[in-house]
Specification:
With 210 residues, the protein is an all-alpha fold. It has 8 helices and no strands. The chain is 78% helix and 0% strand. Helix 1 runs antiparallel to helix 7, helix 5 packs parallel to helix 8 and helix 7 packs antiparallel against helix 8. The protein is globular.
């Protein structure tokens, strides 16, 4: 059965809503692991802080194109991810590079709010996550699973699988960025899930910073 453009538009809308809740649940479970263990061991600072900033950027991008699904996604997920960042900062020492990147991500949010070229800010910032997304599997490979929540990783991976299916099947030329980044997200998260099971303990010579 072939789905029409309108069908895929509805799938995209409902998928955004459903997986927004799924990702929020994942972020909350990861935060719980950090707080309960009073540790951020193996949780990739750059990955977490980047996504927190990205969801804030999504709000302004959604407002610029009047897309209610994107606005909902950003508004709903930003608080969950900022709480995750706050508690990660409380229980894990950030390196100098990580602190500088956090400040840079903050400037990106500001640029998205005040600059007229919100579409390009969104696209460029999203493409940047191709590299940052691999910091989480790297952390697990180097330091073991630590307090990384397998439930959180599973939530993020399921959402990414949906976006891959949607991007490559919906006849929407505006989805070209998703076609580039989503496969990399899926690979990175797939590796993170795999490494979570393969490397339960810290590798010899590993350390706590990226």
């Amino acid at each position: 059965m072939t789905l029409s453009v309108q069908d895929w538009a509805k799938i995209g809308l409902w998928g955004t809503v459903i997986f927004t809740f799924v990702e929020a649940y994942g972020a909350w479970k990861q935060r719980e692991e950090i707080v309960e263990n009073k540790s951020g061991e193996s949780v990739a600072v750059i990955w977490v802080t980047y996504f927190s900033a990205l969801y804030a950027v999504v709000i302004f991008y959604g407002l610029s194109i009047l897309d209610p699904a994107l606005i909902f996604n950003g508004v709903f997920l930003t608080p969950f991810n900022f709480l995750l960042c706050r508690d990660l900062y409380r229980h894990k020492k950030f390196s100098l590079t990580e602190m500088r990147l956090c400040k840079f991500f903050g400037l990106i949010i500001l640029a998205s709010a005040i600059l007229p070229y919100r579409d390009w800010v969104f696209v460029l910032f999203t493409l940047g996550n191709i590299a940052f997304s691999f910091t989480q599997p790297y952390e697990i490979w180097k330091n073991g699973r630590g307090v990384v929540s397998i439930l959180a990783l599973s939530c993020y991976l399921s959402s990414t699988i949906f976006w891959n299916i949607y991007a490559f099947n919906a006849s929407n030329p505006e989805l070209w960025t998703l076609k580039i980044i989503c496969p990399f997200y899926a690979i990175a998260l797939g590796l993170a899930v795999l490494f979570w099971f393969v490397f339960p303990k810290k590798k010899e010579g590993g350390n706590d910073s990226v």
